[in-house]
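Case study.
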Amino acid sequence: MLDKIGVGSIDDLFADIPASVRLQKEYDLPEAMSEEEIRAHFDALGAKNKQQVIFAGGGAYDHYTPSAIGALTSRSEFLTAYTPYQPEISQGTLQYIFEYQSHICELTGMDCTNASMYDGATAAVEALFMAVAQAKKKNRVLVSSTLNPAVLSVIDTYTKYKGIAVTLIPEADGRTDRAAMQAMLAEGDVAGVLVASPNYYGIIEDYTGFADDVHGAKALLIMQCDPSALAVLKTPAEWGADIACGDGQPLGIPLSFGGPYVGFLACKKELVRKLPGRIVGATKDVDGKRAFVLTLQAREQHIRREKANSNICSNQSLMALHITIYLALMGKQGLREVNEQSYAAAHYLHDELVKTGLFASAFPDAPFLKECALRTTLPVKALQAYLAEQGYMAGIALGDYREGMDDCILLCATERRTKEQIDELVKLVKSYEIL
Amino acid sequence: MSKVIEGIKYADSHEWVKVEGNIGLIGISDYAQHSLGDIVYVDLPSEGEEISKGEEFGAVESVKAASDLYSPVSGTIIEINSALEGEPELINQDAYENWLIKVELADPSELDSLLDAAEYEKVCE
Amino acid sequence: MKYYDKLIFEISRPGRVGYSLPKSALSNQQSAISIPENLLRETPAELPEVSELDVVRHYTNVSNKNFGVETGFYPLGSCTMKYNPKINEEMASHAAFKGLHPLQSADSVQGALAIYYHTARALSELTGLADFTLTPYAGAHGELTGLMVMRQYHLMRGEAQRTRVIVPDSAHGTNPASAAVCGLEIVEVKSTADGTVDTNDLKGLLDDTIAGIMMTNPNTLGIYETQVVEIARLVHEAGGLLYYDGANLNPMLGASRPGDMGFDIMHINLHKTFSTPHGGGGPGSGPVGVAAHLVDSLPNPRVVKGENGEFKIQDAVSACGRVATFMGNFGVVMRAYTYILSLGKDIKHVGPIATLNANYVKESLRDAYYLPIDTVCKHEFVFDGLADKSTGVTTLDIAKRLLDYGYHAPTIYFPLLFHQSIMIEPTETESKETLDDFIDIMHRVAEEAIADPGMVKSAPHTTPVRRLDETTAAKNPLLKYRDLA
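After joint prediction, the assembly is written out as follows.
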């Protein structure tokens, strides 16, 4: 090979690197490990994690993952493929993205969606950017304070650098304050409004009239949703929203310490040219055979460069495949059952805790599905630490994120939580009180 | 070789303007449609919007390219060519027959700074 | 099922199910969902109704229409399509990490935090930078995060006027797009004839409005920027920072470190250099590394080591902000960590072998393809179409013909410096035999272009589908199953 190239050594191929920046030392790294050593190393690290029974959500939900998903997503034809820029040999990827898009539109009721985003928070940011791009000359957005605080933080970061003004709509009794929003809209400079369903507290807010308020101010309504819950809850389209966004994790993606998950972003037809990221469309090949292809590429960064609405290049393709297979396996009936069982588990947990006399609803009478905020007379952090010792992750301490909620805990139960686990948790809570 | 026609004014960003009274019809040149290839979408502004000379007012897209549109004149947009919504390929068929927007000219003297056919032909070389 | 062409929705039959949930003791007590009617969905979502076997067979057949690294060779310039070792996958699905909730207390996830911490340490050692955040999800996300760090640094120093960033005209589209999302104005610096940054042009652009410059090294033509030390001096003297786009980091392993070259900020594509799979477009991972003076500006949260050796998750007020819901694509980080452990110190051989392979392919094909820049390359190089310009066969045709021979196409029409760019990057994981086979096929395609140009121009002929009508797809977008009806 060196003869062909016409050099004496591999080192000669690096002769152009100035001596002052040529690596002169050995890397300070361990010796190469064999597979057996690597397994032992991961086993040792894994032993330092404490496996817990999860009674928390906050943006990541412990739903069941059917066995067939891993078997299929680990097929190397999916796993090791590049982005489907050569459609003739990428119909596998392109077809499942088309199916993914069909599922997301079905769940949200929207007309179009892209091939997926990084996560729910970045999808929300991109939705706001779409609204600002659509409005052309307006540069302010309203965001409900009932959103997940991590999502709010990401929005704050992105908009700060991009130069978009964000105003938080205050909450009233755990819900978006509509009157406050109306007053803000009346100022006339709002491009978009972002709300959540269910919101951070797990409350299913009633957005009746919101779309009219927002559209009346020539702004777009954006709704962040839990896609699993959309099997039963009113869809963003039914609420009159223009854009839907969220995280696909609740659709059977394991908790995996926060990632990889997948964001989704869907919209009305009129907004498709403002939708960022890859999009797959159906077409035909020269023989007239149905086929799929990346389309509407003139929106994207590789063509528009600094004029593109977004810098996103990739998608979370394999995770989009994961939820596509999940939705195929669960189907119409299964996704409904997931919601019913989660509802039953979460309400049983809520009721049993309230029965102890140590807990009360933070927002009485607020409808919820699988997650709810409770006030307690017990010290939240100490209780959580005690339960963690017993192998339970008992919710999220709301005081870490919200003013005046030091005595509140955000608890969650999915279909994976059994009656026995809930009874045991409640028993432990009672035993803590005696301690 | 792309076509340049007489009797209209051109901008070096490849838009043309045809003046009828105080109204200017604005389109893109044959050279521009040729460089883009099959046009699949035309993004146009709304009627009633004010634009100034040199301002971006929309974009023309083909499968693998996008080109922003810059107004050669200042004025108010009084009409957009809605036929292009469903049939953007009309521009490929005849770039000079198929205008994009109609503008009520705010300052007809701006036309003097635009190129005539001979000058524009040199830009395309 | 060679001709399988169904969508999952087309094999749906009412009442069929493919899942298995236990009969819950609780559902019996709390029968249905009791939520006010006006909050419930009006029309049900038409999800498929299929059995598990339907699903497994469907996606197996769908997968057969795909090409992956395990199917064949990917000479795909700028994408570093190296082999993805199986042990990476095994470790990424380790049971002790799968069930961890991202908001669990730090003391209950010490194993996971150790992986974050040690991966960041290894990346620092390999790049000569002080610290890394592993949160960014992809290369473009890393670029944006890195630019946020850059702006935050200037803001904290009271230099809010530094809002312009210099980007070479040959840069990947994400560079200017990321800069724009970060609120920065783009200033293009010219390239010289060999595609490297024109330092004279650069000098004229530097003033106190410049936040920094974004570069790759080696650049997009696979050429090492020999002026890098001088560029770093110029930009730093003008008060700017240097951003290193890690897309081309692979050949630098064992050769040269961005931190030593003078770069202050960089991102790494773990899915390129650190062998994690591309997954058909993601998930990837784009860690961002910074020099010591920028560590405080890295995004929240950060993983740090406490006095007693325990790992902590920390937020800092000086941070540029938060860029993800949790801490990024942890599963991808696990794979990259496994790769680093597998190679250890020997990772130094990666860059030299990748460079050897690229130069070998370049020299073996330059008789048949036009080599516009004749110099030693690093991990990749660019041809400007066929050497014989009389055939009418374009780069696109060559790319499509390669598909017939069971190869993925090279990167085509990028960089934009040439009209018929064919960008080839073989990576270090391919053997000489694989490269020789590829070289033979490339020669054969060049001969076919002369002998039978019509056949090459209508390629591919043997793929699951042939050339597609992309114009109609863009003109009349059909983006979901319901649109097909």
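Observations recorded in class. Chain A has two domains: 53-63+331-434, 67-325. Residues 317-355 of chain A form the longest helix (39 residues). We will return to this complex in the next lecture.
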